[in-house]
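Why do we care about 3D structure at all? Because function follows from shape, and shape follows, mostly, from sequence. That is the central idea of this module. The next example makes it concrete: a single protein chain, its amino acid sequence, and then its structure expressed as tokens.
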Amino acid sequence: MIRIDCSVNLTIAPAELVQIGRSALRIEAAAIADFAEFLGEQFVKGVELLTQPSGRIIVTGIGKSGHVARKIASTLSSIGRPALYIHPSEASHGDLGMIGEGDVLMALSNSGETAELGDIIGYCESRAISILAIVGNGNSTLAQRARVALVYGMVKEVCANGLAPTTSTTLAMAIGDALAVGVMTVLGTTSESFRLYHPGGRLGASLLKVQDLMHCGDRLPLVRHDMFMKDVVVIMSAKGFGVAVVQDEDGRIAGLITDGDMRRHVEVLWDSRAKDLVSARPITVSPSLLASRALEIMTERGVTSLLVADEANNETGLIHIHDCLRAGL
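And the structure:
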């Protein structure tokens, strides 16, 4: 049994608590599924509204709707559509000046009658700034005064008293995500865009390409094919990759020498030249390959470095497993 201390001491069986949680999730999931069936013209108009303006998307809401609004603004900005959150009360005390020509206002409210939204709605109407509403009550002031209104209806909140914003905020969040996906599709947002807007963290690392991490030019441990191994070892040690990149008589890349190659030829190592130990067919990857895939290849093949070659098969650099690990892959 689990005892929950509150204003009234309750004893709730674990199985009953699990059922309460499952019921809450099912009700919220059903609400999203029901709304999805009615999604139509207003959604299309909403996506068009968010992709066409020359300015920014101003997202607003108060209370729990305000928290959802902040998340939607952050999501839109992260896909390349400049957006910011404005608190409606702060808007009434000077922040209305942040809204300019070409902007679009996205307002969130379950009731659609939130008093604090009055000033910001009036301001936008007076300046012909379009309003997109995500709202529960289709007959509300907000829904009627918006150019586009995505109305999800008066849904059942899953809290015990049916009062705390739960199902309604989940729906508003999901609608915001759906709009963002629509905007991404219209704008043609690519993984390159995500790399630009997410340079940090795991997401940024996962979108790195080989060309972002590879070494080239003077950083490469280049050796001539006729160089004695005693000199090759010095260069390998100085560059710190554990490999040597061997050039043939024409200056082209002939292959790699690894620590493993040297161990396998240790008995004749100091009497050998680079061309005697070179692996003539090293694994080569494209500069545009995702660095995460390069890491997978190195792990699968049991190697620590890969040569990088362009589409014309010209070797352009070297990527080491440590480069990938340092980048957080």
